[in-house]
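Question (not urgent): is this output format expected?
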Amino acid sequence: MKKFALIVASALTLGAVATAAAQAPNVSLAVSKPAGGPEGTTTTVLYGELVRVSGELSNGQPNQAVQLTITPYRATPRTVTLRTDASGDFEYTHRPLIRTSYSASWNNQASTQEPYAHVRPKVGLRVISARLGQFRVTMAAQPQYVSRVVWFQRRITATRWATVKKIQLRASNLSATFTARIPRGTNRVRILVPQTPGYLRATSRFVKVTR
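Got this back:
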């Protein structure tokens, strides 16, 4: 009889633990553009733009301290402390300069998701002299992680671009002045930057050149 009672007591204890675990509040986390739009596990921005990191406690508790960890690619993570609002929500605005992941924790409970912000380099192309075929390219990104070899391209159909020249950017300021031969008439040209582990592929806006 005592053995039976012990088994029943153990079962009840395990059941209570399982119920408590099942009811333990969790932390959700998502990223989005600050101006609005869908929230999810990834978002993409140009270098220098902001993202909004938002989350909530499933139990809706207000004024709770949540630890948000920000981890840029190949950089030391840093943690900021946020407070939940009256609905148990929290948010943080961040400017990722390279691919960055986010995680949150509350009372040793980690967030169910670790969303990412993917970053594209910001690329500019300017015509110096259409007659001489002189151009200048500039790029904003972290020099040690972005490709410093870019491609100068000319549009040949509505959907196809042909590479005219490979350009090596200066490491000091990620820029270059160069000359390139393009056909006479009106051409649409751009710069293509290949993808690297820290940055997505990027292109400049096309420039119309008449010579």
